[in-house]
């Protein structure tokens, strides 16, 4: 999953971004409204953390511009605790949720997980496909109850595929949602990660749709006779 953090306080931006990266997300950063608007308008983010009080262009107008342009990614806005009007403006502009400053980082992480779940149509932070279970809250993967050790990139890839289980995901989409903006993107590396995941999981849930991409799912058992 690839996220954007738009916050002009560089220390806070770094803290939020570092926490999200530690939780297994790819994170891009912007430090003013113009930069944030442009990145959100041109890159396919899975979710955005957006401060309301930004220089050059305020967060509400950035969000309104995204929604008018048809950008539907979930947006979590950051507001001042004593400015209830900011919360109302943000929600009316198209925000999906808000967190008031000062906040606990665990709350931001929990709300991001919830937004990503809802966007993918899931009600729980536990994703299950066959014997493979991904606990997004703990960042843990198990197969038949046994923990599987994955690298950060392997976890990101599996998480994205499992959030969109049952849908064919192209290599291009995977690359766009797996790597930060300044990462050296190479779609050929996806095949390497897929191969490693299949080997580590040891079960056949990652299918190749030849010429189209990959799909996570299990083969349905034939009907009993």
UniProtKB/TrEMBL annotation:
The modification 4-aspartylphosphate is found at residue 51. One of its GO terms (biological process) is regulation of DNA-templated transcription. One of its GO terms (cellular component) is cytosol. This is Winged helix family two component transcriptional regulator. One of its GO terms (molecular function) is transcription cis-regulatory region binding. The lineage of its organism: Bacteria, Pseudomonadati, Pseudomonadota, Alphaproteobacteria, Hyphomicrobiales. Residues 124-218 bind DNA. Residues 2-116 form the Response regulatory domain. Keywords: DNA-binding, Phosphoprotein, Transcription, Transcription regulation, Two-component regulatory system.
């Amino acid at each position: 999953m690839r996220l954007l953090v738009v916050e002009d306080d560089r220390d806070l931006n770094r803290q939020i971004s570092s926490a999200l990266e530690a939780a297994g997300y790819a994170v891009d950063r912007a430090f003013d409204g113009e930069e944030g608007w442009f990145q959100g308008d041109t890159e396919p983010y899975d979710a955005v953390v957006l401060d309301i009080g930004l220089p050059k262009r305020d967060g509400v107008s950035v969000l309104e511009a995204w929604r008018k342009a048809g950008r539907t990614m979930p947006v979590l806005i950051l507001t001042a605790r004593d400015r209830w009007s900011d919360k109302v403006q943000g929600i009316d502009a198209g925000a999906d949720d808000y967190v008031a400053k000062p906040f606990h980082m665990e709350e931001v992480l929990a709300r991001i997980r919830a937004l990503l779940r809802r966007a993918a149509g899931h009600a729980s932070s536990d994703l299950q496909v066959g014997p493979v279970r991904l606990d997004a809250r703990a960042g843990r993967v198990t197969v038949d109850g046994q923990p599987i050790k994955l690298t950060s990139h392997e976890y990101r890839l599996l998480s994205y595929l499992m959030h969109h289980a049952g849908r064919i995901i192209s290599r291009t989409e995977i690359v766009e949602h797996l790597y930060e903006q300044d990462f050296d993107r190479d779609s050929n590396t996806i095949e390497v990660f897929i191969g490693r995941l299949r080997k580590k999981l040891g079960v056949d849930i990652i299918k190749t749709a030849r010429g189209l991409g990959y799909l996570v799912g299990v083969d349905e058992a034939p009907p009993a006779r």
